[in-house]
Amino acid sequence: MWLAWMALASVTACAPRRAPEPERTELTAMTWNLYFQASDQPGVEEVLAQVDPDLLMLQETTAAWQARLEGLFPYQHWVPGPEAGGGVALLSKYPLESVAIHTVPGARFPAQRAVVQTPSGPIEVLNLHLIPPFGPRGSLITGFFRTKRPRYREVEALLELGVPDLACGDFNASEREASVSLFEKAGMLSALPEYAPGQHTWHGPGDRDFHWRIDHCMVGPAWQTTSAQVLEVGPSDHYPLWVGLRDG
Question: What pTM was computed for the model?
Answer without folding.
Answer: 0.87
